[in-house]
Amino acid sequence: METKIIDGLALSKQVYVDLKNRIRKLKNIGITPGLAVILVGESSASQIYVRNKVKACEKIGIISKQENYQENIVESELLNHIYRLNKDTSINGILVQLPLPKHIDTHKVIEAIDHNKDVDGFNVINAGLLMTGNPLFCPCTPYGIMQILKNENINIRGSEAVIVGASNIVGKPIAMLMLQAGATVTICNSKTKDLKSHTKRADILIVAVGKPGMINGSMIKPGAVLIDVGINRGLDNKICGDIDLPSVKDIAGYITPVPGGVGPMTIAMLLTNTVESAERSIKDQ
């Protein structure tokens, strides 16, 4: 069996074409979508992520406002900056790049963001709306995964979906979206016994744990759809995913590569959420 490598970068470019058209319509009525990105500290990885998001905004016509703060910023000051952005009508989306320094309560910061501008979809109001099947914003990585499956015409209804990793950012929200799409969902975590017995059942296997090559060819069902969310550095210092690509090739039906799979779609969905927020602001006026 030849494994299809899913090109997330190519799909993200298709999303951007659609977004450019939607932004053009918004600009015709005097609205330009705006995204504020807050970066605390000088983590090189976070700086790269933020730079990629800002560049993507510029390419399609979203105004990006990047605010950088020192690592020792006090929590109350950071919250005040978020409250200011909540009131700024030129800003449709607010994103705080994670992780934050240890002295800052991440939950408190996320909850400070107006849920109508929470384009990451992490606020408890948005998490609750997702749980009930009526999301205002889907978290970007799960949203991107669903678009990948849709674009590849993967049948979700009635399928066995196994998710390895139970984070609030990926594992839990993608489980909800898959459940709503009609899949039978199993969530595995670090305490799961005999992980292989679960992963071998999966028609769709989504892995998001941050451990290089933890899933190999002996752990998957022939023809399975593999979604690799992990971003790691291997022993050779090259970027790799949570799935060992060489060992699953010719066993899996589909796989998202790392890099070039889920990552580009995550940024594309962040921009999609920002545009949707701008469109929604018209209806609310």
UniProtKB/TrEMBL annotation:
Keyword annotations from UniProtKB, A to Z: Amino-acid biosynthesis, Histidine biosynthesis, Hydrolase, Methionine biosynthesis, Multifunctional enzyme, NADP, One-carbon metabolism, Oxidoreductase, Purine biosynthesis
InterPro entries named among the record's database cross-references: Aminoacid_DH-like_N_sf, NAD(P)-bd_dom_sf, THF_DH/CycHdrlase, THF_DH/CycHdrlase_cat_dom, THF_DH/CycHdrlase_CS, THF_DH/CycHdrlase_NAD-bd_dom
Residues of the Tetrahydrofolate dehydrogenase/cyclohydrolase NAD(P)-binding domain: 139-280
One cellular component term from this protein's GO annotations in UniProt: cytosol
GO biological process: L-histidine biosynthetic process; methionine biosynthetic process; purine nucleotide biosynthetic process; tetrahydrofolate interconversion
Tetrahydrofolate dehydrogenase/cyclohydrolase catalytic domain residues: 6-120
Taxonomy, superkingdom: Bacteria
Positions that bind NADP(+): 165-167, 231
Pathway: One-carbon metabolism; tetrahydrofolate interconversion
HAMAP family, per database record: THF_DHG_CYH
Family listed: Belongs to the tetrahydrofolate dehydrogenase/cyclohydrolase family.
General function of this protein: Catalyzes the oxidation of 5,10-methylenetetrahydrofolate to 5,10-methenyltetrahydrofolate and then the hydrolysis of 5,10-methenyltetrahydrofolate to 10-formyltetrahydrofolate.
Protein name: Bifunctional protein FolD
Organism placement in taxonomy: Bacteria, Pseudomonadati, Pseudomonadota, Betaproteobacteria, Candidatus Kinetoplastidibacterium
